[in-house]
Amino acid sequence: MTFRFLTDCVHSREKWIVDMTDQAREITWKTFRKNVPVEEVRRIFPTYSYNGETYNPETGDLTIGFHIKDDYGVGFYKSVYRGQLCYYLDHSRIEYIFVEADDL
Questions:
Q1: pLDDT at residue 56, rounded to an integer
Q2: Whole-number pLDDT of residue 98
Q3: Rounded CA separation 4/79 (Å)
Q4: pTM of this prediction exceeds 0.85
Q5: Per-residue confidence (pLDDT) for residue 103, from 0 to 100
Q6: Count of the separate structural domains present in the chain
Q7: Which phi-psi region, left, alpha or beta, contains residue 34 (left: φ > 0; alpha: ψ -120 to 50)?
Q8: Domain that holds residue 7
Q9: Which DSSP letter does residue 48 get?
Q10: Is 76 helix (H, G, I), strand (E, B) or coil?
């Protein structure tokens, strides 16, 4: 199963987000990464350094110099969003939701 970005809490409904976060289980970056391709995360967060690079290889933009997994404002979770298994990334209290690619 490969998970892709679907939406974030800003563009969703409060009830759906509350339901999702209420049943969420915190997971490690390693577990998150097994299901959500790093390329998909980089597409949403291009300014992080994922392999120690100082520039994003796709855009050429300068990175902030550390990995997203090392950001104290980021957490990784597994849950259910609107009846679908999901993984989400909490970045400074904004939830970025990834669901199975076949479901998009």
A1: 83
A2: 98
A3: 14
A4: yes
A5: 55
A6: 1
A7: alpha
A8: 3-103
A9: S
A10: strand
